Amino acid sequence: MKHHSRRLLNRAVFVLFWGLLLPALIVHAQSRLSDDPGFVDLGAVEQWFEDAPTLEVDIRGRLLHLVAEASRLDDPELSVLLGKLKAIQVRGYSLRHSQFDDIARHASAFARRLSEDGWHTVLHVRERGEQTDMYVRMNHDEIAGMMVMVIEPGYDDTVFLNIVGNIDPEQIGRLGRKFDLGHLDDF
Amino acid sequence: MNLPDPSSDAMASAAWMEARIEAYLDDDLPAEERAHFERRLSTETWADQLALAEQIRAGLHRLPAPLCPAPVTQAAIRTARRETWADWRGRLTTIWRPALAMTVLLIMVLSAALFGGRATPNPPNDMAVQRALTEVKWTLAYLSQVGRETGVSVRRDVLDPYFTPPPSRYPEPKKSQ
Amino acid sequence: MNLLQYERLVHRHQHRVYGLCFYLLGNREEAEDVTQEVLIRLWRHRDDVDEARLPGWILRVTRNACIDALRRRKAYRGMVVSDPDGIERAAGPGRLPDEQAASSLFQEHLQQALKKVTEPYRSILILREIQEMKYEEISAVMNLPINTVKVYLHRGRKTLRTLLSEVLPREFT
After folding, report:
1. Where are the alpha helices (DSSP H) in C80-104?
2. Best to test chain C binding among A50, A95, A98 (most C CBs inside 10 Å)
């Protein structure tokens, strides 16, 4: 009986252990953002600049979920949009006029690599002293990510932005128009 | 200023005159030197040099003092505001964030272990969440502005007919629960 | 210094800082970049600067930043020799805002001559003749005795006369 009890106990511990650990492992495996097709590693961009970013936004995983929950009452449409996203990354940099050509070249090379990786060019604007690129990554029939690069001299006018997740671009445009960029610019 | 001795033959020299042109215009010459200077002006080509010196002063005074463009100062003030906010946030972070992180972690571990699902989110008035919400709104506003400035709207019905997805290098993403 | 005081100081000194940058660097874009740098540096050093000495400090920092920018420009030109025409075009000075004032031939020659005056005479000419600063103020900016400022000012004016005598036809002098 003693031996039998011990075996039962061992089995119970085994089941309890894996019952606790396995969900955590599954959650961990699901949150490997870097494997997501819509994800862009903005660490490569940081190497182009001598100075640290002047603007930094990094919202993913649990925090993104909490933000979606927080906006549910005031803005249900925003909450629904955020519920489908996995990450929002933004980096803003200071750029002198004399650095423009150099950074624009880096950005163009970066854009070529995105194209090679399956990103689709939505926008490609070159004007005197300003360069804007926008890319989307498709996964079957859904958008898996969006990447925007704006190169413009100024304190924080050079911006790299990556949104990962099932994006509805029209919804983003609609929602974005509601929010006053000028007011939020002081955050 | 070390001007040549007026009582010597140096008075006759070009160097003496050259050294006194600006002082004459500034009305800085002693009476005797001023008188000698003016005598030489009437007889020699120094009058041309004096006229040029006067013209240069007038020309420099006419050069405009350009005004600093408003975006330059606005950007500097924005930086100061941003750094002030970051400073405050940093102080709060050292106190509150470790406690918040521990709480969230404990909830996550217990929820994953017991229920395998999402933990109950923190209350909406949590400072970090509010901050992140502001950042999300800013990001959407920024994207919308880029679209408006470039006249671009990304529409699925525009993308789909023209886009043939290349073979993906990435594994199929697992559907999130 | 709090944020409100900082904003007040920025508004007070912005035009002088920009004006000095504009004439030392010769183009609007670089002047804007350096002005922004200087104003941000004021914020980051706000606790180190005595407000009574601020006017001299900020223009001193401005002048030093402009000299650094000019050195970088020379270093860049030294590195990229395969496209001299492109560099010359890119580094070309923009026209002043008040084009009527600069329209006369004399004014154009005067501006070109001013660019050729070496430091520290050029800074002193700009501060005295264009920004109409007092000798005491210039002395604080340049960290020079007042008499030295006067001597350097005279030398700067003399240099302008020499340069302009060489290029102007007699009827303009």
Report:
1. 84-90
2. A98
User: Encoding tokens for residue B57?
Assistant: 């002063």
| Shared-domain flag, residues C132 and C163 | yes
Give tens-digit pLDDT for A52-99. Answer: 888 889 999 888 999 998 888 888 889 999 999 999 999 998 888 888
Domain edge (last residue) among C73, C94, C115: C94
- The beta strand positions in chain C, using DSSP E, are none
Question: Which of A 10-29 lie inside 8 A of B, CB atoms?
Answer: 19-21, 23-24, 26-27, 29
Q: Which of A59, C11, C110, C2 is nearest to B55 (CA)?
A: C110
Which residue of B60, B67, B81 is in closest CB contact with C130?
B60
With CB atoms and an 8 Å threshold, state whether B143 touches A148. Answer: yes
Facing C173 at nearest CB: one of B23, B48, B76: B48
State the DSSP code for C127: I
Count of CB pairs separated by less than 8 Å, A with C: 14
| pTM, full prediction | 0.51
Mutation pick from B60, B83, B87 vs chain C, by most beta carbons of C within 10 Å, is B60
CATH code: domain of residue C90: 1.10.1740.10
Which CATH number goes with the domain that contains C153? 1.10.10.10
Place of tokens 């005031």: A74
Please indicate whether, in this complex, the C-beta atoms of A98 and C33 are within 8 angstroms of each other: yes
**Is A153 within 8 Å of C33 when comparing Cβ atoms?**
yes
Q: Do residues C51 and C111 both lie within one domain?
A: no
Q: How many domains does chain C have?
A: 2
Q: Looking at this predicted complex, what is its ipTM?
A: 0.79
Measured CA to CA in angstroms, residue A104 lies from A100, A134, C90 at distances of 6, 14, 16
pLDDT digits (tens, 9 = 90+) for A10-26: 776 666 666 666 565 55
CB contact under 8 Å between B130 and A62, yes or no, is no
Q: Are residues C28 and C6 in the same domain?
A: yes
* Full residue range of the structural domain in which residue C160 is found: 96-173
Instruction: Single out the residue in C61, C94, C127 at which a domain terminates.
Output: C94
Q: What whole-number distance in Å separates Cα of residue A89 and Cα of residue A55?
A: 10
Q: Are residues C70 and C151 in the same domain?
A: no
What does the DSSP 8-state code read for residue B10?
G
